[in-house]
Amino acid sequence: TSNNNGGGNVLFNGEPYNQYNAGIRVTQPLFAIGSLAAIDSAKKDKQISEYDVEIASRNLGVNVIAAYFQVALYMHNVDTLLLQERIVKESLNTTQHRYHTGRSQLLDVLQVKTQIALLVSQLADAKNQVDIAAASLANILGEPHAKAYAIKNNLRSPDLKTVDSDVNVNNFHLPELEQNKIKLLQIEDQKQVSLGKDLPNLQLFGDYKYQSYKKEDLFDGVNRSWDAGILLTIPIFSGFSSIYNHDALVSQQLQLEFARKQLQNQTNLQQVTSRKQLETAFQDLIAGKEALDLAEQSSKEAIRQYKLATIDFLQFLAIQTSYVQAQQTLNQSKYKYIVALGDYYSASGQDMSHLIDLLNEANK
Question: 230 CB contacts (<8 Å, ≥6 apart)?
């Protein structure tokens, strides 16, 4: 910097003179209340973000499991309708033969053909459901333009005993609660930071300066000087902003404590609810398997009796429809059980990778 020091006084031969200055000041805080708390608060911001990622990853895992096996469910429905179509088409040959021999009426033939036509439409709808479910899975996985996925047509899952041996309800990790705990600790850091702004602080400073009346001599060694010292700053007229900031932080702290209680209550409810839903889904699965076994026996017997002309087509169709419904109901029960497993692991704070390993093992 340069300053013209002529002013109203002519000092050097009637000419004003210039004063050139250059330098640098270095300061180092030695003591300031809240300085370390500010660093800790910044670290906690990173931890909070990491828990956000963990929550999103867990929820994504649950959604992917549900979406993946929904595709498998719809593929099973297609297979069930194809089986029904094959059975009805085989019955058409029997019905036409009985009609030509006078043991059946034309109405029976028309009814069989009507059912075949209806199955064509049902199969088209079922295949569309597969495509839509696959597109939904692709969107969840971040590949919305994917055309297809190679998915095994399996809906197998571990039984409840295997799940119970894997789940440890006494050892759980819920990122929402951990994140809330970090936020509460961060409030304490912010209180220290806010308080420190209006309290004395101590700094070490050092100056390294050059001063000359001629520009060309500014950086000569003889014009160089330095000094160092300790500066104590005592805020006097800084106001009472820290008081208001403290009140605001206390309000945030109370909100977080209330949110924590809500989280704990909600977590307990979800754990109980998800467990009951899992047990119900498993019982439905067992009942569905028994129902399908009986329906399959009925279907085979109906095919045999229809060929022997001891039952008419309406009876035959009713039995086959029940068989298809039993298959679809069982498939739906399998799917609900798998979804219930995902919800149970999530609500219980368990590692989702364990469930994925169990599902992969069951569907080998």
Answer: 30, 202, 203, 204, 205
- The confidence score (pLDDT) of residue 148 equals 47
Task: Give the residue from 48, 52, 51, 60 showing the smallest Cα distance to 346.
Answer: 60
Alpha carbon distance 364, 360 (integer Å): 6
d(CA 99, CA 344): 56
pLDDT in tens, 121-149: 889 999 999 999 988 888 888 765 554 44
**Distances, alpha carbon 255 to alpha carbons 19, 243, 252, 334, 359, in Å:** 60, 19, 5, 42, 40
Question: What confidence score (pLDDT) does residue 239 get?
Answer: 53
Spans in the chain with pLDDT lower than 50: 2, 6-10, 147-149
Classify residue 236 by its DSSP letter.
S
Check residue 14 and give its pLDDT: 53
What single DSSP character describes residue 173?
Answer: -
CA dist 119 → 6, 17, 145, 262, 329 (Å): 106, 105, 30, 51, 18
Q: How far is 266 from 349, CA to CA, in rounded Å?
A: 13
Specify the pLDDT at position 20: 76
Query: Which residue in 206, 202, 203 sits closest to 228, CA to CA?
Result: 206
Give the Cα separation of 53 and 57 in Å (integer): 6
Q: Between β-strands 18-32 and 2-4, what pairing exists: parallel, antiparallel or unpaired?
A: antiparallel
Q: What share of the chain is helix, strand, coil (3-state, %, to 5)?
A: 70, 10, 20
Q: Produce one character per residue of 167-204: b if its CB has 16 or more CB atoms within 10 Å, e if not.
A: beeeeeebbbbbbbebbbebbebbbbbbbbbbeebeee
Position 103 scores a pLDDT of 63
Which pLDDT belongs to residue 119? Answer: 86
Cα–Cα distance between 256 and 258 in angstroms, integer?
5
**pLDDT of amino acid 145:** 55
Provide the terminal-to-terminal Cα distance of the chain, rounded to the nearest Å.
79
